[in-house]
């Protein structure tokens, strides 16, 4: 398959340097908004252009609590295991991010626990993993605008085995704090946080919201270098028009790439890759054709 043939939202790439393979995960259900949740598929590539798949990496059992909105899986390799962070919802339970585990990057992934790690009574999504300077794992996630109006990016410290939160959630910032975001009826969206340290050693966060030209990606910087901030927003978005939920990864050739889904319209979403220049700030480069 070519990447133009892959319909996916919230793309996440895990490079495997030993196998020289890229694993692409994302929201892959046919009806991502209203239908029953099916699961997650993944794709593999050696060059980011020619892809094999889809491979079923997660399918829920009958006992699984969630029934819809299977969204935004991210996969990390830790302690010789693969951990997936993904969001789920049911009619009688709030949306939350749950941790799944597998011995293989192509699954099958199974729930690490029987419930999400995010707060039980909060509508949450898009949990992402960050390991701090003391090797403590954190989940950074969105507390949704549908519950708080001004969407929040929050953090909770996780136990070493990633099974549970060991701290209360902390609000890092709200969507309206960025000059580039646009609200509707005072509702401001937060989506897709992703953490990275740039070439200067500064801790930065990509995150998505609605901007002047639609779905967009902004960048925030931690003034302390610590996950708890304070966080300062860059005035202009990194990506400004009809594309978002981005993450950064390094290719086998040491190039820094941003992947997003674009356009932000169902069913036309496709994975896109852009070069990123990391020189006294992250700057968007050319699209990888």
UniProtKB/TrEMBL annotation:
Record carries keyword Hydrolase: yes
A GO biological process of this protein is: carbohydrate metabolic process
Question: Which residues does the UniProt site feature Important for catalytic activity, responsible for pKa modulation of the active site Glu and correct orientation of both the proton donor and substrate point to?
Answer: 126
Its family remark reads: Belongs to the glycosyl hydrolase 43 family.
Which UniProt keyword terms apply here?
A: Glycosidase, Hydrolase
- InterPro entries, per the entry: GH43_arabinanases (IPR050727), Glyco_hydro_43 (IPR006710), Glyco_hydro_beta-prop_sf (IPR023296)
One MF term from GO for this chain? hydrolase activity, hydrolyzing O-glycosyl compounds
Pfam families from the UniProt entry: Glyco_hydro_43
Annotated metabolic or biological route of this protein: Glycan metabolism; L-arabinan degradation
| Protein name, UniProt field | Glycoside hydrolase
**SUPFAM superfamilies given for it?**
Arabinanase/levansucrase/invertase
Q: Could you tell me the superkingdom of the organism this chain comes from?
A: Bacteria
